[in-house]
Amino acid sequence: MQREQLADFLRLRREAIRPAEVGISEGPRRRTRGLRREEVARLAGMSTDYVIRLEQGRSSQPSTQLVAALARALRLSDDERAHLFRLAGHQPPPAEGVARLARAGLVRMLDLLGDTPAMVISDLSEVLAQNSASKLLMGDLTAFTGPRRYLIYRWFTEPEVRAGHSPEEMTHHNRQLIADLRMTEGRRPGDPVVDRLVARLLADSVTFRRFWPQHEVGVRRADRKTLIHPRVGPILLDCETLVTPDLGQQLVVLTPADAEARERLDLLRVLGVEEFPQAEINEGVR
Q: If I label 168, which of 5, 42, 223, 230 is the partner at 20 to 30 A Cα–Cα?
């Protein structure tokens, strides 16, 4: 761990970010150049005291998880992120690990979308980053571990995730999710991460075993789905998907499909997330 260089790099990157880039209002009396330490701490999900100690070169070695969180909070490029890992005394993540870190440009787009729910998803359907509107709508989908971190795995193995959908809508989503996974499998032949996920789904889901042999292929570009929120009820959403050139990550933007959905999203923003537990959101969203 190169404490002095790490401290210098973190401070300079923090000062280089305009608050508006991460969705923070600057205000007329703001004198701090770039972000405040407490703002970085909030974006990274760590204590302000630890950020201060890092910048002063007197902290313990941050874990790889904390380094990745700081890279996201500071909107680092791929090269800057690799440099940050080395300064912190860690090797940059291998190909699999890098794919699980949301790209800086996509994270900036999340910030710019403001009240429009959006998230960054990997080509294996792992949620890598969400904006606050997305978390308000669906809960924090980045905290799952093991095979449950993949949306496709939860869809096919957890009945409560599919509850509330009509048979036609369920079949549609079954086919789209599998076609997306088939596309990834073809693009990443022999990848052990992909192979493990497919094997796990084949072992754990009768429905997946029925659809997988049909060999349908396709990357989702647009979709429509219903999310059932525990406080405001069903919300009909149009899902637009922007895909990176290498097809490795997707930016999914959720917009209300009709006036009723727009009203329910507005109500949700008024209610806020403080009124009810996070777990209740995660269980109630279909």
A: 230
